[in-house]
Each structure stands twice: as structure tokens, then as C-alpha cells.
Specification:
homodimer, Tetracycline Repressor, domain 2, 2 domains, DNA-binding, DNA-binding transcription factor activity (chains A, B), Repressor_TetR_C (chains A, B), TetR family transcriptional regulator (chains A, B)
Amino acid sequence: MENGAPAVEARRRAGRPPHPVLGPGRITKAALRLIARDGYKGLTMSALARLLNVAPSALYNHVSSKQDVLLLVEDHLMAGVDISGFEAGPWHQAVRGWAWSYRNVFARHTPLIPVIAVLPVTNAPQTVKMYEAVTAGFHAAGWPPDQIIDAIVALESFIFGSAFDVNAPAEIFNAGELAADAPLFTQAVASRASGSGSGPGGDERPVSPSDTAFGLGLEALIDGLWAQRALAPKARHP
Amino acid sequence: MENGAPAVEARRRAGRPPHPVLGPGRITKAALRLIARDGYKGLTMSALARLLNVAPSALYNHVSSKQDVLLLVEDHLMAGVDISGFEAGPWHQAVRGWAWSYRNVFARHTPLIPVIAVLPVTNAPQTVKMYEAVTAGFHAAGWPPDQIIDAIVALESFIFGSAFDVNAPAEIFNAGELAADAPLFTQAVASRASGSGSGPGGDERPVSPSDTAFGLGLEALIDGLWAQRALAPKARHP
DNA sequence: AACCAAAATGAATGTCATTCATATAGTGAG
DNA sequence: CTCACTATATGAATGACATTCATTTTGGTT
């Protein structure tokens, strides 16, 4: 039941079917089922309509484009991002939990990232809700108000980039025939400390290389941002 | 002149036209011209063929798919990323220059990012060359070899995510009708310190919000990574 | 019972990437 | 000089796709 107000008002104007056979909610659920089964390549308007026992053109009475469908999915996923840490706990730990959760949710939905990163949050209630919770956490930690959004954007950029990295194949850094021209790089790849370290849960189990890199970068970013809190904004560069 | 060796060897095997009318080099250049003119939506195999005065199907004698074309473009762009700082200067400054340059190059080529982030570097000479230079810089700065790749991946993730942010519209954080439900967020957006700070060149001119966020995150990441250098790899999380 | 607007339909359109059978052209071998 | 070989170019065809449109169905309201 996402945003019933306009539907109610519209229903007031004239006779309507009381059972909305199709609607944002059902479309979102069907899209998620499709994505879970066949991935984003399987998410076509035809497949979506087929799953809903409806003609493809019928969907356009409820969404104006496929991008609209992606927006619905995105906003639904945002509700799955863990913001509980910002309600009470220490800032460092809240950001950690939020960032891991955020990355894990979108690692399986990377095709959404180019959409999210560029589209306004208007008409995305769950997304706004998440931003409000995160902002509140920063505020409570004494962050300078005029730096909060920039800090969130920086963290989000790292999270989105890292979500792509999760889907990288293991051999992505295999230079192949070019290895001879890149001895230091090849050596660094070979000695990469994969499998060591602790997992996102703090327990001692093997983690993927992308988990290790994300953990390293996240801790660096959290510490670095904390240290720069209240300093003048800078964007210097040689 | 991109890797003439295979072509020469192939020419040795049998009779060939001495003037390669089409080839990776020309295809790459044409693709870049198309992207510059019409953006990535204008980069179609038909348009590419038209620009080269050739039938679309002819392209498939030189590339096996459109993804191959994107790979050619990507590797070409990698040559434009500034790695000069790693040859001599201090580590902090070298990373800074590299990261700004890397982000600026791919901010205008975000459709490539999902491709880059997932595809092996094999057969991408410029890409391998860049990684080698960066690895050498980390090595020279005394970085623990088994952490170099993870640190680079973390920086790259931040860079890729930030490249998307560059293309975000100014009103991306306008909550619209939902503003009432997100007072702290709305206030933080309004007080965002945009226009202040110094530009990437260190001079005093207005910078975009994405520049500010990138500068903030990059400095935090650089400082944080430097501080964590030589510490045990960690990926902890509550 | 008639009306009206939302919603569903089926056919059609245009844009893609990609494939395939065929044709061409230049080169080394005879 | 000529034949055969091979890379490369061609044009037509295919199938997937999002989207549009004229038309019909549907069900509550009057």
C-alpha cells in the first residue's frame, strides 16, 4: 500500500473498480520476483505482464515507462537497508551497519545504481525515509549541518562503487599475456590477502576479496570523515 | 597503433589487404567521436558503421559484440588517466591527482562503469599499465604488498561511485511533497555548503556539490587508508 | 438501466544487436 | 600468369524489446 492518497481521491471522482487488479504494489512485487528468478535481463515489460496475466500495454496505465518500474523496485529495496543503528548507538557503528547493509542490498541490484544515482528522490518515500534516518544520526553525533549531505554522498558513492565490485569475477585482475609488462601489479594481485580477516559479522570465517576491500575502505572512510568533521570543506588537488 | 603484433602474425599466414580499412583503432576513434557528439545513446552499431562508411555487419569482423567496442573505448580512456604523480611525488599527492583525474575521465563515460567493474583486465593494455603505475606508487610508499590491491579497489569503488554523482541533477535531493516527513534531511540539503571551498586546482573558485563531496571523501579515504597501512586486514561489522 | 472513466486489449511501430549466405579483393603458391 | 585461399564487406533477415494507439471491456455511480 504505497501512497494511497491519489488513488483514493481519484476513486472519489468517478466509478472505479474497488479491486485494483493492477497497481504499483503488485507491479513491484512481480518485478522483484522476476529479478530474483531471471536477473535484470529477465525483467522485460512483456515478462512482467505475463507474470501478472495481463497484456504488456496494460502496464502503461500504471507506470509511464520501464524506468518507472525500476524506480518502484529501488524504493522498495531502500526499505531493506538497515538504519536501526542510527536510532541509538554510536556513530561509527551506526554508519558501519548501514553501509554494509546498503552495499549488500544493492550488490544484487547493480543495474539500479545508474538509475538511483541520477534520479531525484521525489516520489520515493522509502528513500527519503532512509536519508532522514541517516541525517538524524549524523546530526545527533554533532556533525556540522552543512557537511552532512556531502559526507553521506561520499559514503554512498563508495557503497555504490563497491556494490559493482561484489559482482566482479575472481579472475578480474588476471593480466593474462600482459602480466610480463606489469610485474609489480601481478605480484600484488598474487599476494592479495584474500580469505583472511573477519567477516561482516565479526566472526572468523573466510571473506571474499570484495568484502575485504569494502571493509578496508569503509573503516578508512569512517575514520577519515570523523577526523575531518568540523574542518572547512576542501576539494584541493595538485 | 594498438597492439599490432597479432595483426602482423595473421598477415603472415595468408594474403591480406595491406591497408586495413577497418580495425580496432579506427573503430575506437569513431566510437569516441559518436559518444562526444550524441552521448552513449547515440552509440549504436548502425551509427558506428555509418560513420565509418561501412555496413553494420562489417564491424563484426573486427569486434565480436558491442561490449567489445565498449572495451576498446574503456582501454583508450584509461590512457588519459593521470598517473604521473606516482613516478616521483609523495604518496598522498599522487593518489589525489590520480583519483581526481580518474573520476573526471569517467564522469563523462558512466555507462562504461558497469562494464569496467566486472570485466577482466586481460587484453586491456592501457588499463594494466595504469594499474602497474599505481601499484608501483603504493609499493614505493612502503605499502604492505598484500594490502595494495584492496586499497586500490577501495579507492576505485569510491571513484566510480563519485563519477555517477557528477551527472546527478542539482535537484536530486529535493524531497518534494515528502519534505514534511524528513525535516532534518531537508534542512541539511538546504544548508549544504555548495559553492564554497576550493576547486580541484587548489584555486578559489566555485565548485559543484559533487566536487565538494568527492574532495571530502577522497581526503578522508586517503588519510584513513594511510592510517590503516600495515594494520591487519579487517572487515568487521556489528 | 444508462453512463462514464479507468483499465485492459491486440495490433502495429520503430529501434536495436546480431547472424548468415554471398560476394569481393588482394596475395602467395603453382 | 592464374588459381585458390582468406580476410573482409555486403544486404537481407531475425528476434527481442519498449512503447503507442484505437478500441473494447468493466464495474461502480447516478
